[in-house]
Amino acid sequence: METGDRGGRGEAGRGELGRAEAGRGESGRAEAGRWPELEAALAVVNRDVRATLPGQEPLILMVTPAPDGSYGSYGSSGGQEVYVAMADGRSHGNPVHAGDLEEGAPQEPGDAATVLSVVAEAAQETVMELLWQVWPLCREHGIGMHPRPAGTSEDWCPGDSAAAGPPVWWCRGGGNGGCHDASPIGELADTLPGKERRALRRGGRR
Length: 206
What we know:
By secondary structure, this protein is α+β, with helices and mostly antiparallel strands. The chain has helices at 9-21, 36-52, 112-131, 194-204; strands at residues 28-29, 60-65, 80-85, 98-99, 106-107, 146-149, 167-171, 180-184. The strands form three sheets. A three-stranded antiparallel sheet has the order 1-2-3. The chain has a three-stranded antiparallel sheet with strand order 6-7-8, covered by helices on one side. Helix 2 crosses helix 3 (112-131).
C-alpha cells in the first residue's frame, strides 16, 4: 500500500523541537471563540476524522509559545503559535495561523478555502505521525490523499492561480494515473459503503 507523500518531515520535526523548548505547562487548548475561522474549519475536518477513524476523539486547536526569534511556515513571529492537535494536546507539523512579520500578531490565514486547506493539511500531518497510519485513504485506490483545490491536474503546484475550486481530498490515482477528486473535505462519510454510512449516521443521532 502506498503511504502517500510525507515531504517536509524535517521542518515539522524542527517545529516540535521548538515547542518543547517553549516550556512545558505553557501550552494549552485554544480559548473557544478566539480563532473562529480555524475552529469552523477544524469542525469540518473532524467530520472526516469521525467518518474514517472510528473511536478517535476529535482533533483540537492548541496554542503554544513561539520559540524566540523563530518564524513559522505561515509567518508566525514571537507570541503564540496555533496547532492542530490530538485530543491529548500532542501535535506534529506546522502552525495553522498567519502572522504579521512587522507586528508579530498571529492571525487566521486568509479566506475560508485557504483556512480549510491549511487546517486539513495540519490535521493530516498530526494524524499520520501520531497514529502511525496513512490518512485519509482513497477507497478506490487504497492510497493516501491530499488537500487540494477541486479540479486540479496531476502537475498542479501550490499557488497555481488557475485552480480556484473548493478544497477537496485529492487522489493521484492508480499506477496508470487517473488522478481524481475523491470528496470535498468534510464529506468523506458520503464515500463510505452504505452499511458503514448508516451506522455512522445512527451514531451521530445518539
